[in-house]
Write a structure and sequence with these properties.
This protein has 150 residues and is mainly α. It has one domain. Helix content is 42%, strand content 4%. It is built from seven helices and two strands; from the N terminus they run αααβαβααα. It has helices at residues 32-41, 45-53, 60-65, 79-82, 102-105, 114-126, 130-146; strands at residues 70-72, 98-100. A two-stranded parallel ribbon has the order 1-2. Helix 4 links the parallel strand 1 (70-72) and strand 2 (98-100). The longest helix has 17 residues, at 130-146. The protein starts with 31 loop residues before the first helix and ends with a helix. The relative contact order is 0.15.
Amino acid sequence: MPVRIIPDWQIKDLIINPAISFIEFEIFSGLATIVLSAVLANRSYVGTFLRRTFIDEIPQLINILKGEMSLIGPRPPIPHEVEKYQLWHRRRLSMKPGLTCLWQTSPNRHDMSFDEWMNLDLYYIDNWSLTLDVKIFFGTLKVMLLGTGR
């Protein structure tokens, strides 16, 4: 299945410690949560503000307006991630990527394994409905308004 390459218009987080690079954030390793915590601990005040207010996601709206993404759906894959997908992970590529998804509204999202995240995406694909989209949309608003995004 071909991978849709979405132009990366996302504002990148500003990290104080440049030794922590994207390559080191390997979501397929068992240390994903530890590495994510290290990245979050070293984010600058500006980067923290961008993430907590979700301002860093605003450029993704360009992709939605261009029709390359939808508002709700599995997050866009990063090509180097897709190279490591197991066969069952690839099914998440069957739907247009979205700005927000079930994972982003989950209270324990940063403690989930990669497979748990993929299962949420596949649940969304298998059970898609306008009702589910509305639930995710309002769940995302709740996370944004309460500032519980990390």
